[in-house]
Here is the input.
Amino acid sequence: MYRYDAFDQRIVDERVAQFRDQTSRYLAGELSEDEYRPLRLQNGLYIQKQAPMLRIAVPYGLLNSRQLRRLAHIARSYDKGYGHFSTRQNLQFNWPALEDVPRILEELAEVEMHAIQTSGNCIRNFTSDPFAGVAGDERIDPRPWAEILRQWATFHPEFAYLPRKFKIAVNGAEEDRAVIQCHDIGLDLVRDAAGEVGFRVLVGGGLGRTPVIGKEIAPFVPWRDIITYCEAILRVYNRFGRRDNMYKARIKILVNALGIEAFRAQVEEEWRHSRGGPSTLTETEVARVAAHFVDPDYRTLPGDDTGYRAQLVQDKAFAAWAKRNVRAHKQPGYASVMLSLKKTGIAPGDITDTQLDLVADLADRFSFGEARATHEQNLVLADVEQSRLKELWQLLRAAGLATPNIGLLTDMICCPGGDFCNLANAKSIPVAEAIQQRFDDLDYLHDIGELEINISGCMNACGHHHVGHIGILGVDKKGEEWYQITVGGAQGNDASLGKVIGPSFARVEVPDVIERLIETYLDNRFEDERFIDTARRIGIEPFKTRVYAQREANRKVANA
Amino acid sequence: MPKLIVHGQIRNDDWQVVPAQATELPNGKLIVPLALWREAATRLAGRGPLGVWLQPDDDPAEIADALPSLAVVAVDFPKFADGRGYSTAALLRTRYGYQGELRAIGEVLRDQFFYLTRCGFDALQPPEGRYTDAQLEAALASLADFSEPYQGAIDRPEPVWRRHARGGLAA
Ligand code: SF4
Here is the structure.
């Protein structure tokens, strides 16, 4: 993975000094609350219900063991012994004291980490494919490009005070695992007819209050020009994006208001002037960054490991885990392992300091010292020899990190919601837990198969509820917490937005509703059809009918 | 007299910024709003050195042809978190080739100094009374928050990987 050179290190060190000074001026009353707010936000620091929340950047999800140990140490020393992986592959701490934050940032800088631009109306942390470099369907490794763009966006002077936050994702594989259609800019690495690398560029996607699937603005931008092209998009947005209403300030609203053709024309006009300028990338710089992402020293192995095959036959529990949590690898004899952070009873994405330390050790022992965070809020050890999977599984199981549920119903995406977040309409963690408890039978879960349930505590959609096969959204009804349910959303290449099935539900009703939805699916599915495919084929009517018929029946009983 | 930071030095300023709604023109060196300049360009031309200031949604293209005759161009930040002025400045310095004094006015605060100068502002005018003399002196440090920024901008058009050979490890 990328290692800092002297320039990178100096920038994070200077950032720590700058933020320490800003914080002390704030504490001394020299900076007002309003003046300090954007500064702390651009350092990932929120003031929340309980205490500040500090969001640490994990650029495109990559972590090394040294960084994991430092995060464990921070969780232990400045927090209550745990952290939370978010849907943007970042790590959040919920309990640090404001006064400690400069010191925490200093500790992070020592291991080449920071909290730069993890919040605020600026270009946010870049996200990408958690299986970059190891997936068989990869066209082009997205990591060097994500790193080059990360550096470009860091403290970009023209785009630090945009109308609203701005998120960019990079994908380089056949299957889009970076949700590029739901980002302000989605970059898809492709080759043109001549084999030259470039980007198909999508713009104006996003979830939140007005969910929109991104539109293609350029079918192919040559790699050399990607910075000037992104700058052209951002300049048009910075100048003309709405600033009068924060709910209408994302770039998707501007793109929709102008229409993609007119927006494209403005960007092209802007780009005409800057294209070919000094920000045009060079082979030297790309090669310098790409050299950090070469394959690790894989052993040459004959192919699938026979011992592993035998273990799968002998040990049912191991096989169940491998089926869900182990993924094929491009390198013969290797596999990628997903560590589930979705054990029932633990808030989705939460991880303790001891688990972080353990993941660091396991990364060192099994996966070349690296781990990755996914936007589904799990972790990945990307480069494990198949012959060592069983040993790894045993260690993970002992630490509560081997729940065999990746991609299943209980592997929910869930935002922090009303337990932590000021903006929430409703809690989300207890909803996730109640659903996990209702569906605790592993055989049943496997029978239901692939299913994504995404939960957000409000319209901001941090839990990506629009693109969950089943989406759950917290809504406020006269001061009470209610939940709206959608069906039929999906992420990936065939991304779609879910449809609301009808009036919302009280929290206690939600597990029942999910059960009715699952029953509807099971009654209607053809053979191995996934939930989402059934939902697309039959539409939402049958789901709706069953859920609300049952609800009526329950009410009658209750009122009898 | 209001204080101004020009090329990193604090000095007194003898320009007057004429407010958007003003109907009377005071005496002295004036920086007038774009709307006023638009309708009274000829009347203003005889008065000696002149400046124009732009609101966030003013199009700098409107003054492009007049730039050689303007002594100051100012860009207003009604709120420091309204970042349109950064793009206005960048456009004035690049597309329209403006070389004279480019001044940030309005809610111009030290924590934005670094970004403002990177986008081409060479004169920074914090609101009168916002900083004591000592605070303003201390605020000059913010001009140098980062010594080697990554990306190219107006002050340093080349990105760091063109300015330096990269790859040397941290000391
Ligand atoms: S979706 Fe709403 S409640 Fe959940 S974390 Fe985001 S802002 Fe907070």
Observations:
- The interface with chain B takes residues 3-11, 14-15, 18, 22, 30-31, 35, 38-39, 121, 151-162, 227, 235, 238-239, 243, 273-274, 277-279, 282, 284-285, 288 of chain A (CB under 8 Å).
